[in-house]
Fold this protein.
Amino acid sequence: MAGRTYIAAICVLCLTVLAPAPSAWPHGDADWIRQNWFRSPSSGVLCCGVSDCHRLPKRAVDITAAGYTVSFEGRSTTIPFGMTLPSSDDDFWACWPAGGDVRCFFAPPLGT
């Protein structure tokens, strides 16, 4: 009987070690970006890491003839309309690694 208990304990230990880790990314409201595996239209890189995606206040985004001018971390960049991904809500979202450039930009449909 002790042999079976030992084997069962080893099996449980192996399953615990080999099982894939649960997804525990602290995305909060931006989790829809991770769940849909969005990738940058320009580079094909996944949009976000653990804390790369941010809801932008509407005042941080200007619509110009060239696209969306996005202000973040004291900088601004223009995202062409063709590089914009659809937002799942009525907010603007941008994903960038700390100190890096915007990888992905999400916008609600124009006119909303």
Q: What stands out?
A: The first strand starts at residue 53 and ends at 56.
